[in-house]
Predict the 3D structure of the following.
Amino acid sequence: MAYPPRLGHLATRPVVVAKLTPTYARAHRIDEEEAAQRLSSALQGRLLPSLLEEAWLAMRGKSKRLDDEGLLEKVATTLRDRPMRPGRVAEASPAWSAFLVLADLEAGTASEAARRVMESPEGRQRAQEGLAEVGRFLAAELTRGR
């Protein structure tokens, strides 16, 4: 695991789902309750640790004056009062789209054609770019505030 265990205790699956639901719902043109259910299902497996790893890399790369413990305290402070606060809606991009397809694959709602595309070398590269992009978004959401 490339991120501290405490990050996983702070940024639990429900917290991450809350941060990503508005963007997922808008992209799929579905209500937020259904979006949250799909995301929760998608993040039950390997996608959540991969996303937290990317978020941690983004946090560490962005903050030069805080050490690891300081970053974790910033996340804890941000999440203290309203951990389930919905995230902002992210701008659509190719990387976000790749992540959304990845989430749909994990949730079991993507087509077989989408699966084949994402299993190609270019698809795997796009998936990694999507994880990195959404990791940066999640890092910003987890550290904004006080």
